[in-house]
Amino acid sequence: MPERRLGRLEVLGAWLRLWTPPRDAVVPPVPWRALAIAGALLAAAVLAAAVLLLPGIAERRHRAGDRAREAAQRRHAEALATADREQRPRSGRGPADPGAEAPAVRRLRARAGLLAVAQGALRADALTRDAGAVHGLDCEPFPRGSAPRPPVEDLRRKAAVFQCVAVTSRFGAGTGQRGVIGIPFRLVTDFAGGRYAFCRVVPLSDRDRLTHPLPAACKKGA
């Protein structure tokens, strides 16, 4: 009986033991030497390609990382520049405390009048900040707890600093967790001089706040 010749796929299937050839078929031996040479040549080609390509890939990744860092630094610098613009002081004038020789009632009226003028100007400024409707203005002495008496009523104080929030939303009404959401400001009133200044307070990290503090006009007070 003549021997049956197998096709290439049949031979490959027999080598891989994927099928059993007929008894009369001739399966040539696996060319291990040729496969070893081909494998070595393929490994050498892969190694050569890696030597040529990997430095370029690493360089492209390095450049991409540099571009990403530079873009992040630009965005951060732009954000800080915007913070500086937003924190620029606004100032104005109002009634001045006439001094110790004037009746207390007159002095209290002038001090309250200056604070009211300053708060009105601050609220008007908040309306220009594109934060929506402003539903009120909450102010307290700054730092918190620093004034045992309201600064307006403490006739010994020539100036005062307030932390204010232009309220855009309130929450927790009727609960023990009430709070407000809004735009923070720092307000300084010079009762003796009849002047005021305020600045928006842009939230910054401690590190950025050291290099981008509030303007001096919004920090003085006693």
Largest sheet: 5 strands, antiparallel
The secondary-structure element order is EHEHEHEEEEH
Low-confidence residue ranges: none
Structural class: alpha+beta
Number of strands: 7
- The helix count comes to 4
Strand order of the largest sheet: 3-7-6-5-4
Helix content: 40-55%
What spatial form do the alpha-carbon principal axes imply?
rod-shaped
Describe the secondary-structure layout.
Elements: E1 4-5, H1 8-15, E2 25-26, H2 32-86, E3 90-93, H3 104-126, E4 136-141, E5 159-171, E6 179-190, E7 195-200, H4 206-211
Parallel strand pairs: 1-2
Antiparallel strand pairs: 3-7, 4-5, 5-6, 6-7
Textual characterization of the structure:
The structure is a single chain. The chain is of the alpha+beta class. The protein contains 4 helices and 7 strands. It has helices spanning about 10-15, 30-85, 105-125, 205-210, and strands at about 5, 25, 90-95, 135-140, 160-170, 180-190, 195-200. The strands form 2 sheets. Strands 3-7-6-5-4 form a 5-stranded antiparallel beta sheet, covered by helices on one side. The protein has a two-stranded parallel ribbon with strand order 1-2. A hairpin with a 4-residue loop joins strand 6 and strand 7 (about 195-200). The mean pLDDT is about 85.
Question: What features would you highlight for this structure?
Answer:
222 residues; alpha+beta; 5-stranded antiparallel beta sheet; rod-shaped
Summarize the entry for a quick read.
With 222 residues, this protein is an alpha+beta fold. The protein is built from 4 helices and 7 strands.
